[in-house]
Write a structure and sequence with these properties.
Blueprint (H helix, E strand, L loop, with lengths): L2 E7 L4 H14 L4 E5 L2 H12 L9 E2 L9 E4 L10 E5 L12 E7 L3 H16 L4 E6 L5 E4 L1
Parallel strand pairs: 1-6, 1-7, 2-4, 2-5, 3-4, 5-6
Antiparallel strand pairs: 7-8
């Protein structure tokens, strides 16, 4: 079963935080699946990944053949591109995590609804025996694992 990492966004917006995490997944040789809660959000993330940095290219798609895509953007369950890393954003349902090496739930710490949902998911996953860890942005913008 996948480890579940909770990423508490405090300094960065999702559109700035997600692309570097996708890059790290690709550098590991992993495929990634980004699951969002709505089609509108998926469109925003698609545009943000393309425009992330001039010196960066994160190959991704949300249409076509998912099996050909290193990063697949969707609102659907499943793992159509055989990803090792799952990124959950905007209250997307985790579903079955067994086919992934790692799942990452990114949430906006300034949004009380998102914060409460993340707390609820943390409790639910811990009770289900999922190994979970909590990551928070430092003042320098780096991710630090919290104890």
């Amino acid at each position: 079963m996948a480890e579940l990492w909770f990423y508490h966004l405090e300094r960065s917006e999702l559109e700035r935080a997600l692309p570097p995490l996708l890059e790290k997944s690709l550098q590991r040789g992993w495929r990634a699946l980004v699951r969002a809660g709505s089609a509108e959000r998926m469109e925003q993330l698609d545009a943000a990944i393309w425009a992330f940095r001039d010196d960066s290219f994160v190959p991704h798609a949300r249409e076509g053949d998912p099996a050909r895509q290193p990063v697949w953007l969707t609102t659907e369950s499943g793992n159509p591109n055989g990803a090792q890393a799952l990124f959950l954003v905007d209250d997307a349902e985790p579903g079955d995590l067994s086919g992934f090496e790692r799942a990452c739930l990114l949430f906006n710490g300034a949004d009380p609804v998102a914060l409460e949902l993340a707390r609820s998911r943390w409790k639910q996953m811990k009770e289900a025996g999922v190994t979970a860890s909590y990551w928070k942005e430092s003042a320098s913008g780096r991710w630090e694992k919290q104890q």
